[in-house]
């Protein structure tokens, strides 16, 4: 045309630019653009300007498209739509929002395409209010009658925002429902995890004579994973092969992913191998399955093979690599992957990769590194906050997890359902009812707390915090009270020592047709153990045996051992112990603890030695139990061996262990060794001081005991009830009446320790020993809570020594009221009568 000397006009240029756009030929398009500029066609012809913007946009030259858009002397709706679609295609949401605001300011009336773009962008950020406003405008203008594209976009917008009932309503009112309409609705349900509805809508779609396409079938396979229906997935696989759709790489990749998610790794690999073409998504789907099911090393082998085939790794591949490193315990490989991620600057582009790195470090107990990655992210989302919060919680840093949640709120992030779930869990772990209450109130505002899963978590949180009225209130508000909710109450009551209530709820659940599981039985057995309810324990044991839980669940066996041992039925405890197929350190410790509690200390030591000969390594609790046994029977050599083991493991400085060691040495008569352990403590607590002082007192070193107690008081350590029991006992033994009164006075006035029966016994016994029987009786009469048999036996003994028959009669009367079956009381009284010749 040009060779013939014919100059192109507007129509020529527009058609030529459209051809360049379709062919993605940017070079030819730029030549035509140069000709347009030479001829001065750009300023005077809007259609040419629009065609140029369209060509540059489609060829991914967004900057040039923007420059041309800004240069347009006049813009129509088409101009705006072209630039909006370009930025929307490249997911530059902020830019699209700015353009829509500018378009509105310029007074440009939106057409159906503009409305479709607006719906897409506002639904992507979850702004349902704007979506509803656009919907209202569309209805006013009657645009839905003739525009199926706009109708489908409305369905998509509501579905994306999670308003699926509204999406369903609009779908049903569409004048015509094509395959796109059905796929849009089905995709919405699929994205929100409602697999059952996806499959039901797919049946209706086929019933309407609309055959499913690749998008429909991909959703169907994903739905099968959501509802864990492998059989249905295999049926869809057969249908896909029948229709010859395995040539579609998207369907093939989804099949690889589906089998991987079901753990059928061999089948996943088989489908992968038979794919006619493999892309990075195919490889990533394959290695994701292996990573998810603990085959981390195999997954990384696929990565090497993938790279040797010239395949470039993408962001999702690196996420799967990090999962593989977690499942395979491959820290070194995970660190290498982090290095590659840094070199490729993926953290700057993909926050999800950062989230995977945070999870990798947290799962490998490198929580400080996880926090460093979090701090380095240029942009954070709720998932990143959630992952770090959970990381801290799982690494035993519950308070730090709550602090992070507070930072998240202060940074303006809105928690999602997962965040609320995590914080409820953490609040329950550390008994922080305030944060738990805050989450409860937030969920109530959002109308979410009655949902079964969240409601259960709130009940569990309140129960773990010991706030049972709140737990029960929420329980009764839950629309569907399932086993999880009942277990939260049974376990919560049992853990907090409310054993009667735990058994009440355990029995009540059966009347509601709720069948107990392992967790329920564990709570009920704990309650029986607390109360010493052997008969109820036997009944629960029978139910457990009927369900064959003892053979399959070690925790049940351990709880039964503990229950029988605490109830004094050691033969039954031993029987259960020997019937457990896998005897863990917990099983051995439960049996050992039961023996010690019932003063079978030698047997406990025998089990301890047997346990070690079986190759079972004792834990912290086992060693504490054995130290107590050594204390009871004076086996100091065994105690020293345990001490050496504890030193090796660096546990000697912990409060509980150091107190047990001081107690063991003191009870075994080696107070010097007890003193040595005490002196090595960085900070000695009141229990350590009390234990050492009681040890000195026990072996007659009364002066040293009192010196130690006075030193403790002088150092400003707050004494407790036991401190004064020891002090008054020493005064009693040494007949230090004035010191006794001084300590009694100091308890109330200086230290705020309430007087207990043990303290009164020492005072009254001392008064009796120094011959002040009448004062002892007068003193006891002022104290209505005194009912200790030892006190009155002390008075009787003193009366015998002093020959005071009148006081003896009063003491005898009180003693017999307390225990009329003790033969020692009348024998003692008969000696007093004989001594008085009455």
Rg computed from alpha carbons, rounded to a whole number of angstroms: 40 Å
Q: What's the architecture of one domain, going by CATH?
A: Alpha Horseshoe
Please give the largest β-sheet.
none
Return the structural class: mainly alpha
GO molecular function: RNA binding
Protein name: Pentatricopeptide repeat-containing protein
Pfam family, one: PPR_2
Keywords: Repeat
TL;DR?
This is Pentatricopeptide repeat-containing protein. With 838 residues, the protein is mostly helical.
Report on this model:
The chain is mostly helical. It has a domain at 380-476: Serine Threonine Protein Phosphatase 5, Tetratricopeptide repeat (Alpha Horseshoe), CATH 1.25.40. Helices cover 75% and strands 0% of the residues. It contains 52 helices and no strands. Helix 13 runs antiparallel to helix 14 and helix 14 (214-226) runs antiparallel to helix 15 (230-242). The model has no long low-confidence stretch (mean pLDDT 86).
What secondary-structure arrangement, pairings included, does this model have?
Elements: H1 10-23, H2 26-39, H3 41-44, H4 46-58, H5 62-71, H6 77-89, H7 93-106, H8 112-124, H9 128-141, H10 148-160, H11 164-173, H12 179-191, H13 195-207, H14 214-226, H15 230-242, H16 249-261, H17 265-273, H18 280-292, H19 296-308, H20 315-327, H21 331-343, H22 346-349, H23 351-363, H24 367-376, H25 382-394, H26 398-410, H27 417-430, H28 433-445, H29 452-464, H30 468-477, H31 483-495, H32 499-511, H33 518-531, H34 534-546, H35 549-552, H36 554-566, H37 570-579, H38 585-597, H39 601-613, H40 620-633, H41 636-648, H42 655-667, H43 671-679, H44 686-698, H45 702-714, H46 721-733, H47 737-749, H48 757-769, H49 773-781, H50 789-802, H51 805-818, H52 824-836
Helix pairs in contact: 1-2, 1-4, 2-4, 4-5, 4-6, 5-6, 6-7, 6-8, 7-8, 8-9, 8-10, 10-11, 10-12, 11-12, 12-13, 12-14, 13-14, 14-15, 14-16, 15-16, 16-17, 16-18, 17-18, 18-19, 18-20, 19-20, 20-21, 20-23, 23-24, 23-25, 24-25, 25-26, 25-27, 26-27, 27-28, 27-29, 28-29, 29-30, 29-31, 30-31, ...
